[in-house]
Amino acid sequence: MNFVVYQASRRGGRAVNEDRVAYAYTPEALFMVVADGMGGHSHGQVAAQLLVQTMVSLFQQQAVPRLPNMQAFLLDGIYAAHDAINEYALRNKLNDPPRTTCVAAVVQGGVACWAHVGDSRLYHFDKRRLLERTRDHSAVQQLVDEGLLSDEQMRMHPDRNKLYNCVGGYALPDIELAQPVTLQEGDVLLLCSDGIWGEISDREMLATLRAYPLERAIRHIMDHAEFRGGRHADNLSIVAMRYGEERFDDNELVLGDDLGLDGFTTQLKRLSLRVDESLQDKDIDQAVAEIQAALAKYGLDKSTP
Question: In this structure, what are the phi and psi dihedrals at residue 204, rounded to the nearest 5 degrees?
């Protein structure tokens, strides 16, 4: 199975990074997860860490080298994490269990499946457009679904982070499970916390993913989201994979290696994707230009003289 996977996380303007992000893989299966500890509850980062550790451990146990059932794995992993978080609260005599959001995905045999709880998102892009994204478990998302708010208004809404569904706490999480999807060469699955999607539109994500190899594209998205968030930027986390082979020309924008405080990044391997140069989209090209101009203006484009 050929793919490129890349992950990164930064604390932004917050005192601590309550996000956790991870991936694990075998020769035939890939697992990715993002968890955003809920800051309104104590020990949010612990909840996120427990979720990631629980699901990665379960993947390592079951993927030998393939998962017997991708959907069952996602459901079992999230429920197991919910129990682990509540057990932690009992052992430590916490008045209120910590809580976290979750978005997790599995890819094997050319098929992807994902599940989520809360407002951490998965985006599925092909080479030209957004094919699908998860729907947040929030009252503001319901307003969007009812046609009372646009996606852009949702991103700016002061109550966008008020959730009715999470992992950890007294109620079982209501896990939203996607049907398996067949991936095509060049498809991208991007999982992220709200520190990313609250600042970057899906059009901008697609433009950047089309313009650059995965690692550089993710670093562009992170830089731009962190700049827009300013001094009070939320934690920012992404794990993304491009399916198939990846091949770009050598004239892309190059960024430096500094990820900031509490930042980390890992890369698995670079295999290769051939971009279809015949695909043109004026809106996407314009978004690329806007992102490049903003990065250059604020000194984030290290290749600018």
Answer: -70, -40
Q: How confident is the model at residue 138 (pLDDT cuts 50, 70, 90)?
A: confident
Largest CA distance in the chain: 61
**Which residue from 237, 91, 85 is spatially nearest to 173, judged by alpha carbons?**
85
Domains and CATH numbers, the chain: 3-297 (3.60.40.10)
| All residues at 6 or more sequence positions from 248 whose CB lies less than 8 Å from its CB, including other chains | 212, 213, 273, 275
Peptide linkage before 65 cis (omega within 30 of 0)? yes
The arithmetic mean of pLDDT across residues 255-271, rounded, is 37
- The structure's pTM equals 0.79
* pLDDT-based confidence at residue 144 (cuts at 50, 70, 90): low
Burial code (b: 16+ CB inside 10 Å, e: under 16) for 63-100 equals beeebeebbebbeebbebbbebbbebbeeeeeeebbbb
Contact status, residue 97 vs residue 170, Cβ threshold 8 Å: yes
Distance (Å, whole) CA 14 – CA 56: 26
Q: Which phi and psi (to 5°) does residue 201 adopt?
A: -75, 160
Per-residue model confidence as pLDDT tens digits over 165-203: 899 999 999 999 999 999 999 999 999 999 999 999 999
Question: Which tens digit of pLDDT belongs to each residue from 16-28?
Answer: 999 999 999 999 9
Query: Are 202 and 160 in contact, with CB atoms under 8 Å apart?
Result: no
